[in-house]
What does this fold into?
Amino acid sequence: MSLDRIMDARSVAIIGASRNPTKRGYQTIRVLLEEQYEGEIFPVNPKEERILGLTCYPSLKEIETAVDLALICTPAKTIPTILEACGEKQVAGAVLLAGGFGETGQAGRELENTIVDVARTHGIRLVGPNTSGMLNLKSNMNLVGLRDAPKGNIALLTQSGNMALTLIMEAKIKSHKGFSYYVGVGNEADIKFHEYLEFFRQDPDTAAILMYVEGMREGRKFLQQAYKTTIEKPVILLKSGRSSTGKRSAGSHTGALAGMSRVAKSALQRAGVLVIENSDELFPVAESLSSLPAIRNNAVAILADGGGHATIAADLLTDHGVRMPELSAKTQEKLRELLPPAASVVNPVDVAGGTDADPSLFADCARVILQDPNVGGLLLVGLFGGYGIRFAEQLTLMEEDAAHQMGKMVRKYKKPVVVHSLYASEKPHPLELLRYYNIPVHDSLDVATKCVASLAEYGNYLHSYHAKTNFVFNWGHKAHPKGAAIICQVRAEGRSALLENEAKALLRHHQAPVSADALAQSADEAADLAEAIQGPVAMKIVSPQILHKSDAGGVKLGLSRKADIRKAYNQIVKNAKAYAPDADIRGVIVAPMADAGVEVIIGTKIDDQFGPVIMYGLGGVMVEILKDVSFRVLPISRLSAKRMTEETKSSPILDGVRGNPPHDRKALIKLLLLCSDIVEAYPEIAEMDLNPVIVHEEGVTIVDARILLKPTESACPI
Amino acid sequence: MSLDRIMDARSVAIIGASRNPTKRGYQTIRVLLEEQYEGEIFPVNPKEERILGLTCYPSLKEIETAVDLALICTPAKTIPTILEACGEKQVAGAVLLAGGFGETGQAGRELENTIVDVARTHGIRLVGPNTSGMLNLKSNMNLVGLRDAPKGNIALLTQSGNMALTLIMEAKIKSHKGFSYYVGVGNEADIKFHEYLEFFRQDPDTAAILMYVEGMREGRKFLQQAYKTTIEKPVILLKSGRSSTGKRSAGSHTGALAGMSRVAKSALQRAGVLVIENSDELFPVAESLSSLPAIRNNAVAILADGGGHATIAADLLTDHGVRMPELSAKTQEKLRELLPPAASVVNPVDVAGGTDADPSLFADCARVILQDPNVGGLLLVGLFGGYGIRFAEQLTLMEEDAAHQMGKMVRKYKKPVVVHSLYASEKPHPLELLRYYNIPVHDSLDVATKCVASLAEYGNYLHSYHAKTNFVFNWGHKAHPKGAAIICQVRAEGRSALLENEAKALLRHHQAPVSADALAQSADEAADLAEAIQGPVAMKIVSPQILHKSDAGGVKLGLSRKADIRKAYNQIVKNAKAYAPDADIRGVIVAPMADAGVEVIIGTKIDDQFGPVIMYGLGGVMVEILKDVSFRVLPISRLSAKRMTEETKSSPILDGVRGNPPHDRKALIKLLLLCSDIVEAYPEIAEMDLNPVIVHEEGVTIVDARILLKPTESACPI
It folds into this structure.
C-alpha cells in the first residue's frame, strides 16, 4: 500500500488538541498555522470548543470531511480506543508520539502488538509509536513542532529525534541545502524503514535519502529496497548501537559480534548504501550526493595553496581508497603556464603563491584540471574564500569571479568540485556563491575529503551495479527431491541435526565435491570399503546422539591395513557406547584421507536482521585465533564470492607461499555459490558447516559437513 | 643553549624592511606597531630612511643598541652574507622566511648547509628557513603578519604555515583559548623540534604544546625530550605525510611501510605524546588538555537528554577504549530522586525529559555523577545551552545557573566535564559561560568524545609513567669483551655480516638461549659432534659467501645415523662449492633439532628517524602473509616487551590452542629485553635477526641468528 495519503496528507486531525502552550497538542497546531500548512487542520478534544481560532471537534466522527492523517498526542493506554475511532473515520494513517510500548519491556510489547492488530483490522498505517513526528516540507505539514527547518531535496529518516534535530540544525547553519520530508520511525511497529524508502524512491522532489538507524526490524527487506533505490538516488546511512549491542549480547564472544556488525555494513554497501561511521560526516555527505555528480573513475585531483592541507588531504583520500593519478603531460604544461615556477603541477597541485595577487587563478587551474580525462573530481583545499579577509579586500571580487566560474564548470564537465576553506564558517560571499552553485564548502579537511570519497564510492557502485545481487531469496528454488527426502526423514525421526553421512548425501545431490565416503555397519564391511579406496582412510562414528565425534573417541585417521581397520571399527563402536550408552549407532564412515591442500571453512546461519548469511575463512588458527573471516548476506553473486576469498588477510596463502603452487580458487568460488544455492533450496536449514574443506591445486574436497535444521512443528514443510 | 633570547627577543631587526605594503618587510613592521610589540623594532634597508615612522638603518652595524633577533625577509641567496653581518652584531637568532633550500633539491641542500655553517661559526641560532615565522603573544612579537591571534596558554609548533593559520582561526572561532607562542619550524635546518619543546617545557605560561609534523630530523632526541616534557604538560601532535612517504618509498613493500609508520606512532605514545589522527580533533584536544584535569581511572559517565546522542557517544568512547562503568547504587538512587521514572540512571544517564522544564537539573545530575568514585570524568551530550533557543527563553537563566555550577564542580572534584551541544556554534550565553570556566563545548559528537578519550589517555599515561623508558641509549653499555672481539674479527676480515656461528657465539656471551651448536670441519667431526647430541640434528653450511643457506643446498634436517651425517657433510660442502665455487667454507654447523614449540621471530634495525627499533612476531605465515608484527623503538621496558608479545593478533597461540599447553611467555619477554641490551651494547650492529626462535613450554631457543654491522671505515670502533 502506498504511503501517499500519509506522507502527503491533505488533512490532519490533532487528537489531544490543547489550549495549554506547554502541550504538544497546542504547539503542533500553532506551528501548522504559523508555517501555513496547505491542508486542513482539525483539533479534536471533547473539552474544548476552539483552539487557536480553529473549531475543536469533540471526536473524529463529528468532522464533516475526510481525514487523511491523525496525530495522536495522548498517552499509550488511550491509543487502542482512538485507533478504533480512526478506523471508523477511515483515516489513512496515525502518527503515535507516545512512548511506553516495545521499548519499555514485556507489557509495552503487548500493547504495541494490540495497536498493530487494531490498525491492521481497520487498514490504518502507523508512524511510530515513540516518534518525534514527521515533516512534509512541501506542504508545510509540520508535525514535529520544530520551526524553520530548511527546505530542499533530502529526505530524512531517523530513529532518534535528537539526531534529526542535529541534522536539521547542521543543514541550516552549514549549508544551503534542506529537506523534502522528515520521518521519525520510532519503534517501527507498523511502517518499516523499507516502506518509507520506497516512498522516497518514487518522490520526484527527493534527490537523496539520509538515515540514522539504531536497529532495523526487517533487514533483508531493507536491503532489497535499498538495492532498488540506490541505482536511482543515493542513500546515506549511519548505524549506531554497536557498544550497547555489545552490552546486550554480553556472553556472546567478540568475534561473532564484530562479525555480525561487519555483516550489516558489507550488506548495506553491497546494496549501494553509503555507510557513514562518523556523525560529523553524515549530513555533509548527503549534501554532496544530493547535488553533485558522482565520480566516475575513482580518481581525484587536489588543488591547494599550501603544503600542509594538501598533505593531509592526500593522506585521507589514500585512506579512503581514492586514487590521485598524475595529471597528463598536457595538463601539467598548461598549469605551468598559469603558475609560478615553484608550483607543483603533478597532483596535488600546489599554486605556491601564484594565487596571492589574483585568486581568480583558482578557477583557471580548476578548469585545466577538470578537462584532464584522468581526473573524475576536484578537491580544492586551503584559504579560498578568505583571500579578501586575510590579505586585501579587493581580492574578494576575484574570488567571486572564480566561484561563478567553478560553479558553471561542475555543470559543464559533470565532475564534482568540493571545497575546503579555512574561512568556511565565516561565510564570506565567494563561499556563499559556491554553495549557491551546489558546491559544498567545509572548514574540516576530514569532512571535505570524506565527501569526495563518498562521491567516488557512489560512482564505483553505479559502475559495478550489474554484478550485484538483489538480496531476493527464492526459497525452495533448485531443491533436489532426494535432498528434500533426507530432510523429511530427519524431521520424521524428530531430529534437528543431519548426520554426517546425511549431510554429505544431501550435498552430493547438488554435485558438491564431497569426499568419497561410505557408511560401514560392521568391521568387515569397513575393511571392504577401505580396500576399494586408494590409500589410507579416516573412520568416524555416526550416531544422532554423538555430535562431538572426537570427544567420544569416535575418530581414527590414516589407517591402511585391513586388520587395523577392523580393529578401529570395533574400538570406535566400543568407545561410542562407553561415551553414550544409549546412543543409536548407525555405523562408521570410512573415508579416504584428503589430498594435500589448504584447509578452509564455510558456514551459513540465519541472522536475526538479515536472514541467511555465509561465512568463509582459512581453517585452524586463522579462524579460531585471528578471526580472519569474511561474511556476506546470502544470496551472493560470483563477484561477492570472489571478493570473499580475496578479502581475508590470509588470502595470499591460497596463491601458494614458500614455493607452493597456487590452489584452486575457482573451485572454491563455485562451492561458495553452491552453498548459497543450497541454503536457498531448503528453507529448513538453520546452519550449515563445511569444516574442513580442503582446497587442492585442482578442485576442493568437503571433508566434514554438518547441517542443522530450524526448530519447527511441521514434519516436512516441502 | 637556551632559546630565551630568540623566543623572548627584546629587539628585532627587520632585514629587507620595505615601504611597499605588499611586501613582508612592510607588513611585519606594521603588525608589530599595531599590536604594540613590547621590544624595539629596527628596520634595515640601505635604500630607505624611514619606514612607518621608524628610523631605517642602512645595515645592522649602524644600530646603536643590541639586537636579539633578526627577521630576514630577503631571498635565499642573500642569506649567507646577511648572517655574517648578524654574527658581527652578535645577534642571538635569525628567522629565515625564504624558501629555496633543502626542500628544492641538491643545490638548495648545499645552500642550507652553508647557512648552518655560517650560523654555527657565529653562534647564531636559526628558525627555518622556509618558515612562515613566529609569534610571541606575551610580548606581542608578531613575526607572522597574522593579526589578532588569540592569547592563551597553548604553544603551537608546526611545519606548515597553513596548518598554523587553521589552528589559530579555530581557536578564535570555536573556543576561548589561545596561544603563548607559535613557531613555524620550516626546514629545521638548525633549531630542531626537540629544542623548541624544551623551551616550552620550561615556559611557565605554556600549559600544553600543540604540534603539526610532516617529518622530523631527529626523532630519538624528540622522544627523549617528549618523555621529559609530557610528565609536566601535555603534548598533542598530528603527523601527516603517510601517503607521500608511500610515494617516495614506492618499491618498498607495504608491510614495512605500515610498520614504520606504526613505529613512529607507538614510540610517540610511549613518550606520553597524544597522537591525533584527524585534523578536526587537533585543536579541541589541545584545548581540553590545556585546561582540564586528566581522567585518573579511564572511566567516564555520559549524561544525555536523548537516546541518539548517548548511543553514538557510547559507541565512540568504546572505540577509544574508555570504560563506561555502571554508576554506584547510591548514585543511581540519587539520580532516581532527581529524574522522572522513564529516565535511565545506569550509564549513559538519560534524563528522559526531566530537564525540559528546568535545565538547571543538569547541574544537579552532574554533581551526583561526579561524586561517584567510579567516575573519572563526565561527557554531557545533547541540547544543553539551547533550551532557551529551542523551547522558551526563560530556560536560558536556568541553563546559566547550571553552567556556573558545573564550572565550579570541575575545580572542586578535579574531574573534567566536556560538553557536546547541538547549539555550540550559535554561542548562546550558557555555553559561553561553560567556556569561561574552561569547559570545552563542541557541536561535534566525534570531537567531544575524542577530547574525553584524550583526557583519559593522558591520565593513563601519567599513571603508568614509572614503567616507561626514557629513550636514552647508552651505547656500549653492558658490552662483553668477547662479543666485541668477535665484531673486531669480522671487521678485520672486511666483512659486514657475522657468520651464524659468530652471531650465536656473541649471543651466548650474553647468556642468550642459543641452541647448542658446534662447527664441524670434517665429516668425521660432524659425526662425533652429532653423537654428543641427544636425538636428531640439523646441519648448516657456514661461509661468508653463502647467506642464503637453503638456496645453496646447504641445509639438512633431522639426521640421526652416523653414516647419514657423514654423507650429509660431504653433500653440503659439495653443494656449496657448486653454488659458489670461490666460497670460503668455514665448516658445517651441527645443531640439535629444536624441541617442539611456537616459532617466533625477533628482528632489530636502525630507523632513519628513531634509531634502533625492534620487531617481534609469530613466524611463518603470520609474519610473511599477515604482517602480524609488533614494533618498538629501543630500548624497551619490561612492560613494553610484555605488550609486544600480547598485541599481535596471533598472541593467543602462545597461550596454547586446541588443548596445547601455554608457552613460556616470560622467557620470551626476557629475550626481547636481552636483544634491547645487545643492540645497546654494540653500536656497530645495524641489524639482528633471530629467526626462528622457538618458544617452548619452558624456555626459548634461538635456532638461527644473523647479525649485520653498519658500514664503516674504522676497523674496530670499541
In short: Residues 245-259, 714-718 of chain A have pLDDT under 50 and may be disordered.
